[in-house]
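Long-time lurker, first post.

We've been arguing in lab meeting about whether fe (ii) ion would sit comfortably in this protein at all. Half the group thinks yes, half thinks no, and nobody has a model to point at. So I'm putting the question to the forum: if I give you the sequence and the SMILES, can you give me back a predicted structure of the complex? Inputs are below. Any interpretation is welcome too.
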Amino acid sequence: MKKYFLLCVALLIIFASCIQAENEGDEESFVTDHPSQSEDEIENERDEMAVGTAGGKKLLEFVVTSDLHFTSHDVVSIYPMTEAVQELTDLFLEWVIRRRPNALIMCGDNTNSGREDDYHLLQQKLVRVREAGIPIILVPGNHDFGNGHGDLFDKYARELCDFESEDAGSMSFSVRMPGIRILSMDDCSQNKDYYGEFSEDSLRWLQSEAKEAGDSDEFLLFLSHHNVLPGGEDAVDSQYVIRNQNLRDLLPECGVRLCLSGHKHSQEIMRYGGLYEIVSATPLASPHYFGLLSLYEDIVEYHTMQLDFSGSISTMARGDAAGNSAGFDFGPVLEEEARKNHEMLETILSKADLSGFDLREKAAISRLFEEFMNAQNMGEIALKRDEIMGNPYYDDFIEAFSDLNYGPWMKQVLENTELPGNTLRISRH
Ligand SMILES: [Fe+2]
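Top reply:
Settle the argument with this. Predicted structure of the protein with fe (ii) ion, as C-alpha cells:
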C-alpha cells in the first residue's frame, strides 16, 4: 500500500511547469478567480454572487485549504515551494483577508512536523486573519503530531478557533453559523500514525451533534484530515480512508451530505450515494489550488482557485511580527519547481518499457502519459477519461508502464474517477 502513496506523492509534483503555462491561456480552465484580484473586483464578485444564482441567495462563503505543511526550518521536501512556504502563507492569508469569507477552513497537516516554533509562527500569521474578523476552523492532521514533537495542536491551533461544543475524548469540535453546523473532526488523536480513526465515543459525540443540527435544520459540514471515501486510485479500500468501517454509511444517516478533507495532496471529489467528499490539494504543489465553498439558500457550491504568485505581498515570513512591505520574488522557486517536475516526468518516462514500439508509437504513448498526468494533477481525470481511454494507443500505454506499477494505477484512476475534482454543486437538502 505504501508504494501507492509514494507513487501518488511523486505524481503530484510532476507537471508544474507545463500545467501553469497551459493555464495562463486556457479559457476553459476551472480556475475562475485568483488572489491577484483587486479589492474592487473581489467586492464586485461578492455582490454578484450574493444576489443571483439558481440556488437562491448566497448565505455564507468559506475559503478551504489543506496540507499547508508550514515550517520555518530548512527541511527536506519533494516540493521546492516548501522553501517559500512562509511567504506563500502570507500571500494566501492576505488574499483571504481581502476576500472576507465567513471562515477560513484548513483540513490538517497545518504544520510540517508539529514543532512548537512552527506552530507559534503560523499562529501569529493566522491571528491576523482572526483579527480581521474572519473565524478560523482548523483540523488536526498526522503531521501536526509529527517527529516526536507531541501534540501542540490544542495549544496553538484550537486556541484560534471559536467553537460551540467539543468532544471530551478528542480535539473534535463544532462551530455553528446561521444555517450550518461545521464539525471539525480529529481523526488523528486515536491513532497518531499514518491512519485516521475515530473512537466510538467520538462517533457518539458526532451523532449527538448531528441530531441537534437536524432538529435546527442546519446543513452539516464534516471536516477531517483523512478521507471518508476511497478515491479513484482504489474503489474498494484505501490507505487514505479513515478506518472506521461504517463511517461512509453512518454520515448520511446523520444527515451529512458533504465532507471536506485533505491528506492526499491532490484535488479530488468523490461520491457515495448522496454523500460527497471534496479532497483539497496542498497549496505547496502545482497547480497551487485552494477552494471556495459557498452556501446558498438551496444549494452548496464549490470551485477551486489557484494562487497567483505574481502579486507583491507584505511579508512577515521570516519572523518579523510587525510585517514589512518588501515584495517577495517567487520566480526562482517556481522555476525550480518546474525544472524538478520536468525532470521527474522524464525519469518516469525513461523507465517505461517502450521496446518493441517504433518512434511514432513511442511518441503517442508518451503523449498519453503526459495527458494523463496533466489531467490527474489538475483534478480533471473525469473530463479527460473518455478521450484518453478511447485513444488507439491506450492499451499500449497501460502496458508500457505495467512493470512500474504506474500502468495498473493509471488504469484504476481512469476507470474509477467519477467526478471532476474542481467543481461541485449539490442541493442543500
Ligand atoms: Fe500532508
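For your lab meeting: Residues 1-36, 47-51, 319-325 have pLDDT under 50 and may be disordered. The longest helix spans residues 331-351. Whichever side wins, do check it experimentally.
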